[in-house]
Amino acid sequence: MSEDIILATDDLTKEFAGFVAVNGVTLRVKRGSIHALIGPNGAGKTTCFNLLTKFLQPTRGKITFNGNDITGLAPADIAQLGLVRSFQISAVFPHLTLRENVRVALQRKRGGSFDFWRSKNVLSEFDDRAMSLLEGVGLKQYSHLTAVELPYGRKRALELATTIALDPEMLLLDEPTAGMGHEDIDRVAALIKSVSANRTVLMVEHNLNVVATLSDTITVLTRGRVLAEGDYKTVSNHPEVKEAYMGVGHA
Ligand SMILES: Nc1ncnc2c1ncn2[C@@H]1O[C@H](COP(=O)(O)OP(=O)(O)O)[C@@H](O)[C@H]1O
Ligand SMILES: [Mg+2]
């Protein structure tokens, strides 16, 4: 087999008191791709994410990241390996400014002692990088505001900036454009595209325009199972997908 798979699941299953939220899901995420997980509400997308980042322990099944079995690892271990979920970074501090928030994430990525951070050169280097990340998510003009002052959509954008600051090998994004207006959606979609250049992205996304524009591969879940998989054209022409998903609800 020649394909380079960064993340794989086999028979991933999660039951809640007898209710099967995720049912025998087998995923293959190609390194360097943008892979979307879509499906109607209650399909099991968020539960899948929680399993992948180890916030939930699977009832059965296996998760492999970069060829290593990570099924038994803790969330912090997973992040350490380079698999980071956007909300997982509790690095959004409500009373720090946006610039400080991104700078903290950059410093976390870099590691090192506190003395090191007092160096003026290092701080201004981080400031420049922080501003460019904020610009990328459309928050440059708000850099001096505290995170708590932001409306919801812009908080998500900040979350994305701090996640990218951590420079993970693979990013998991749960509805990155949720709560955003059109302009912000376009900007965040462009940003996801640009950060995917040298990493892998797996995202849950409701906005099908974003999915169609960004995704190399789409997996459609319904009732915890994989219903269809492929590129946007393949998936959107799938009769059962049309019936179960495209036809109802989401525009
Ligand atoms: N902790 C839980 N306990 C019981 N049922 C849950 C729990 N989390 C999710 N579920 C159920 O599992 C199903 C899938 O939920 P979820 O993964 O959030 O779906 P999605 O993100 O696709 O909307 C839903 O029916 C939901 O009610
Ligand atoms: Mg969800």
UniProtKB/TrEMBL annotation:
A family per Pfam: ABC_tran
Gene (UniProt): cysA_3
Any one of the GO CC terms: plasma membrane
Presence of keyword Transport: yes
Protein keywords: ATP-binding, Hydrolase, Nucleotide-binding, Transport
SUPFAM superfamilies in the cross-refs: P-loop containing nucleoside triphosphate hydrolases
Keyword ATP-binding attributed: yes
InterPro entries named among the record's database cross-references: AAA+_ATPase, ABC_AA/LPS_Transport, ABC_transporter-like_ATP-bd, BCA_ABC_TP_C, P-loop_NTPase
Gene3D superfamilies: P-loop containing nucleotide triphosphate hydrolases
Biological role: Involved in beta-(1-->2)glucan export. Transmembrane domains (TMD) form a pore in the inner membrane and the ATP-binding domain (NBD) is responsible for energy generation.
Gene Ontology MF annotations: ATP binding; ATP hydrolysis activity
Taxonomic path: Bacteria, Pseudomonadati, Pseudomonadota, Alphaproteobacteria, Hyphomicrobiales
Protein name as catalogued: Sulfate/thiosulfate import ATP-binding protein CysA
CDD domains: ABC_Mj1267_LivG_branched
This enzyme's EC code(s): 3.6.3.25
Signal peptide: none
Domain ABC transporter: 7-248
